[in-house]
């Protein structure tokens, strides 16, 4: 059996109770399906930009709820398998899903990296080879964290997604979703072993 824990109370929480002027980006990720639909509707009503990450709950969410969550999001982030499930559940074409988010659709492709459909074009992002193969649990979350950090710093889609790729590899090299760790200096040094950032990541060293 599955113990829902605090997720059982998720539908009782509301963005209406928050100071929404202070919210730059909300992340709607796997949760109680009713809560996920509620959060998407509230973000749209309140004008809060959000990243939509339905992933494991795609199978439990109704097609209509998925379409509504997708149509109001700024960013969609899923893996390639979840993308196909999303297409089947919503009845939308692949092209429609790729171009519906206000800012970008991001699909991770495992060892093949990721692809981004953004308003400025399509970006193919390579994966960072791991130094050792550990546990893939949590690598999607790590990728999103790196991507969001890059966007928060005002970096390009290309650099932000490459930050996500490296963050994902750090997670992959360890056992468990939160066992990895690194300093910002370590991160920048390793990033530059694989990618050219033209010193853009110096901003991390000033954090």
UniProtKB/TrEMBL annotation:
What Gene3D superfamilies does the record point to? 3.40.1190.20
Give a single Pfam family match: PfkB
The UniProt entry, under InterPro entries, shows: PfkB_dom, Ribokinase-like
Instruction: Cite the entry's keywords alphabetically.
Output: Kinase, Transferase
Carbohydrate kinase PfkB domain ranges (all copies)? 27-179
Write one Gene Ontology MF term.
Answer: kinase activity
Protein's name according to its UniProt entry: Carbohydrate kinase PfkB domain-containing protein
Organism encoding this protein: marine sediment metagenome
